[in-house]
Amino acid sequence: MAAAETLKNTVEQFTTAGNQAFKDNVEKSLASLNEANAYSKKNLEAVVASVTAATKGAEVLGAQAMAFSKKSMEDQVAAAKALAGAKSVQEAVELQTAWLKTSLEGYMAEFSKWGETVAASVKDSAKPLNERVTATVEKMQAAK
Fold first, then answer.
1. Domain parsing of the chain, residue ranges
2. From the CB of residue 57, how many other CB atoms can be counted at a distance below 10 Å?
3. What's the pTM value of the predicted model, to 2 decimals?
4. Do residues 83 and 92 touch, judged by C-beta distance below 8 A?
């Protein structure tokens, strides 16, 4: 009878320990799943922020291009009117040369401005993604 009681106690202890281990593993798995979900959510938020920044940069660049095109057309019309009113070939050449110089300077300034806009847009777009990469590296280093 004592052996049966010992066997019963041993089985109960193993059952209790097994149940506790199963419960602990389920809790750890759920915690890991919740952590993975939170991490994925942060990654998705970073992608959305990156795309939003890129879209904003494209909109700014588009607006700059439209404004430049409009101004360029207006300058060309004004130059054509001035050229049409030239009283001599020498005056026409001087007007054409002045317009060409001003036009090239304007193009160079505008392309520089566009370059700055693109660089800022790339920087703003990359920032949320870089932050997530940094967080991942830090997490991996902490796990070691």
1. 2-143
2. 19
3. 0.68
4. yes
